[in-house]
Amino acid sequence: MSATPRAEAPARAPVTRRLLGRQPIGALFAAPYVLFWLALFAWPMGLAVVISFRDYFFAAPGAQVERPFVGLDNYAQALSDPVVHRAALNVAIFILINVPLTVVLALVLAAALNTALPLRTMFRSAYYVPYVTASVAMVGVWLWLFSSGGLVNSLAGGLAPDPSWLVNSFWAMPIIALFATWKQLGFYVLLYLAALQNIPETLYEAAKVDGAGVVRRFRAVTVPGVRSATTLVVILATIVGANFFTEPYLLTGGGGPNQASISPVLLMYQEGIQQGEAGYAAAIGVVLAVFVMGVSLVYRRFVEEGEPA
Amino acid sequence: MHSRRMRRVAVALTALLVLTACARDGDEEDEAGGEEASGPIDIWYSNNEAEIAWGQAVVEAWNAEHPDEEVSAQEIPAGDSSEEVIQASIAAGNTPCLIYNTSPAAVPQFERQGGLVALDEFSDGASYVQERTGEGVEQYQSADGQYFQLPWKANPVMVFYNRALFEEAGIDSEEPPLATYEEFLQTSRTLVESGAAEAAIWPSPASQFFQPWFDFYPLFAAQTGGAQLVEEGEPRFASEEGLAVAGFWRTMYDEGLSPKEEAAGDAFADGQSAMAIVGPWAIAVYGEVDWGVVPVPTADGTPVEETYSFSDAKSIGLYSSCENRATAWEFLKFSTSEENDGLLLAETGQMPMRADLPGTYADYFEENPDYQLFADQAARTVEVPNVENSINMWQTFRNAYSEAVIFGEAEVEPTFEQAAEEITGLIAE
After folding, report:
1. Between the N and C ends of chain B, which has fewer C-beta atoms within 10 Å?
2. Do A276 and B112 touch (CB under 8 A)?
């Protein structure tokens, strides 16, 4: 009988290797971004959490002011504030309209622009123009389109809502979501175009030989082929949706009518900057950040489910 | 594996909470400068053309005689509002010594931030503010009776009307029927129904905290004979007078006489609106329009000489980051002397807030009769209340007003009562 040799415990790597990995130079290359992330994300985020537990406001350097610790009061206020509830509902409306519309339109347009269309380059540029144009200029055009005497109402005639779109409690949010979808579309089309380049042409040819038509090839080859891009688009569109600010700030005069288009970030701006309630604004911000991270993780699980490892 | 990660997260959160609870409030006391220090200073003034001309002239005159205490002036940096710019600047510690565009509504907030110097700290501070301003100076005192601002100029708001549009609608343009709510409504209906104007009057329906100063508040001041929104810690707008004013505006919105949308430009200058609620600064701006001016309406009509309005005043603040405060104080007095106030009046048409304005500049008003009405109105103005959480208070009021009056989504009385209750809590904090 021979004794079974006991598996030897793996020797612990030296501390430097555990910290810096097998290629320490890699840490050097990553350092600028890590510093950037620490200074512009981690530190402000930590500070926001600290501020959110206080009755905090911005004061002059050196001023002796009272900013007492208030525990979870700011969070309790945020979770019971009807305006925060409205802002959360608006995020849901925005995401429900913006995310599916963005995914479908961007994918269909990218697939179309990936084929040998006449004037393809012009179309590719045209879809990208709204994305690179300043929001303020775009908002000016949309204000003109959707005002009472604007082009849309002139075309709609008796079907135009009263009050008009942007001052109508029901329509203000859908119009904002449509504006954001249209403005961001070019960027997502570009993401899908890049992903489409990775689908081997042979898959389309094989599908064609098997008798698949255009729609079938799109569903069976294109859609699964860009799954990872779809994950990215869905997550990015959700993050943009949860953080929308410019649209209600400019398009509906600061979240109007009567806060029907208020967003959490706009509310943070109003509370923290305009009204000097930085502690409360920070609490809303922390809740929003946790929500976005949670939703992104859930999306990632769902969209990537079934994807080959 | 999971439990180790959970432990790490728990440790990090605990550390953060401990840090949060222990973090020190504020920083060490740091007096930027003493009241005795003199030397070069910076100032900001408003960014409208006429005020820039005035500012440059005053600074040039000062610098010629004070080479060791030179004043450098610039326009206030651009922002959504001056208040936000100043607030950010206070937090950054880079405010200039003097800002000639300080809204009285924001003063309590700037004071709370530790951004302002009490003028009482100068030996002649309080007496200068009181003597120059005269009657009504108490409206500018802080809760503890100090002056953190010098009331500088007023733009008492009145109703401008476009004579050409009134004539087009068949309305008397010399003595237009605009004194009572009923007259004002009937005139508005005639203007819109005749097609002379798209809107009778077009106050901004936006939600910023300061918008009530140009729709509700002037009429409230007139209807109450000079009451502030809050007096002795009690909100006054849910009163019979406040509800009458709100009812008037709600009718204007309900009947489409005032649009619920923001105007693309200046609706009065563009001829889209037949009337506007503005101050005397508008005389220079509306040079192209053949305008007339009347006091704001009241329910039953009030004689001109008894009608109150909102002052739309601006103050001068001396900011705590200023090192050479003695120079700042001397320059503040120099720039608000009788001579330089006269120059302000001549250059901008805005009313210096000094006692006996019509008497002090009698020649000017004789030569410029358009401004006489505003000078008379300046003697009957109401300021914003100098209370804690002032901006928050106005925002709460504006939200209630937007809901119940502009968009008509709630009953006015209960909405105002609820807002009054919230405001009582805010100002008591």
Report:
1. N
2. yes
Choose, out of A49, A83, A139, A275, the residue to mutate when testing the contact with B (most B CBs < 10 Å): A275
- Integer distance in angstroms from the first to the last C-alpha of chain B? 49
Length of chain B: 429
What's the pLDDT score for residue B373?
86
Asked if residue B22 is part of any domain, the answer here is no
Cβ contact A276–B20 (<8 Å):
no
Q: What is the chain A residue with the closest CA to B391?
A: A275
Same domain, B348 and B411: no
Chain B CB contacts of A164 under 8 Å are 261
Per-residue pLDDT tens for A30-39?
899 999 999 9
Q: Could you tell me which chain A residue has the CA closest to the CA of B394?
A: A275
Asked whether residue B20 is domain-assigned, the answer is no
pLDDT tops 70 at residue A9: no
Nearest C-alpha in A relative to B261 = A167
Element (H, E) at B401: helix B390-401
Which member of A54, A149, A258 has the closest CB to residue B409? A258
Q: Answer yes or no: are the C-beta atoms of A247 and A239 closer than 8 Å.
A: no
Q: Between these two residues, B304 and B222, which has the higher pLDDT value?
A: B222
Mean pLDDT of the residues in chain B: 89
Contacts of B21 in chain A (CB under 8 A): 53, 69
Interface contact flag, B115 A274, Cβ < 8 Å: no
Tell the CATH superfamily of the A80-304 domain.
MetI-like (1.10.3720.10)
Q: Which of residues 149-178 of A touch B (CB under 8 A)?
A: 149, 163-164, 166-167, 169
B47 and B141 together in one domain: yes
Please tell me which of the candidates A65, A253, A273 has its beta carbon nearest to residue B262.
A253
| pLDDT-above-70 percentage for chain A | 94
Interface contact B25-A46, CB threshold 8 A = no
Mean pLDDT, rounded, for A59-64: 90
* pLDDT given for residue B4 in this prediction: 58
The verdict on A148 touching B (C-beta cutoff 8 Å) is yes
A99: Cβ contacts below 8 Å, ≥ 6 apart: A234, A237, A238, A241
Q: Give the sign of the dihedral formed by CA A69, CA A70, CA A74, CA A79.
A: positive
CB contact under 8 A, B28 and A62: yes
Report the alpha-carbon angle B127-B130-B136, nearest 5.
165
ipTM of this complex > 0.90? Answer: no
Q: How far is CA A110 from CA A51, A188, A189, A286, B164, in A?
A: 44, 9, 5, 36, 56
pLDDT, residue B27, reads 42
Residue of B nearest to A64 (CA): B26
Percent of chain B's residues with pLDDT above 70: 92
Q: Which of A168-172, A194-198, A297-301, B251-255 has the highest mean pLDDT?
A: B251-255
The CATH number given to whatever domain includes residue B268 is 3.40.190.10
> Which amino acid is it at B247?
G
Helix/strand/coil for B294 = strand
B79 lies within 8 A of chain A by CB? no
Question: Could you tell me which residues come within 8 angstroms of residue B203 by beta carbon, excluding any fewer than 6 positions away?
Answer: B211, B214, B215, B258, B277
Task: Please check whether residues B93 and B142 belong to one and the same domain.
Answer: yes
- Both B105 and B79 in one domain: the answer is yes
Dump pLDDT digits (tens) for A99-140. Answer: 999 999 999 999 988 887 788 788 888 888 888 888 888 888
User: Containing domain of residue B89, as a range?
Assistant: 41-148+314-352
Which residues numbered 193-232 in B keep a CB inside 8 Å of some CB on A? Answer: 198, 205-209
For chain A, the domains span 80-304
B115 touching A (Cβ < 8 Å)? yes
